[in-house]
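Course assignment 3, question 2. Fill in each field.
Student: A.L.
Task: Predict the tertiary structure for the chain below.
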Amino acid sequence: MIRLIPYDNKSHNNDSVYNPFHEMDAFERAMFGGSSLAEFRTDIRDNGDSYTIEADLPGFKKEDIHIDVEGDYMTVTAERHSEFEQKEKKNGYLRCERSYGSFVRSFNISEIDAEAIEASYTDGVLKLTLPKKKELTAQPKRVEVK
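Answer field:
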């Protein structure tokens, strides 16, 4: 069965390696929720001959969203800049809660026709159409004995 599964390099858990930041990570998840600021939420739908990925990227400019295909992985990167980053404007802020920086997700596309991927961005939603590779049906063939 063909499946499009988000690639998450954090899911490879190796308990035999000591992680001194494990308790701090657990504290951060408890304080700020389970989602990471460096990721964005996606919906993946199987349309039969293709997949559709819809990713929530509100507040991003189209030119700050990049989709790269390398080997069997597609990486979607979006970068948001903030006026708060600029030192001369920092004094005018009383509070700055909106997140900014780079947001990244990777997807395994080994069963996808990478040359035919299409993307659009409307109203803060990135929509990707990923056609599945055509299955080659083996035609019966008789081999001549020489």
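Instructor remarks: The two ends are 39 Å apart (CA to CA). The helical segments are 22-32, 87-90.
Grade: pending
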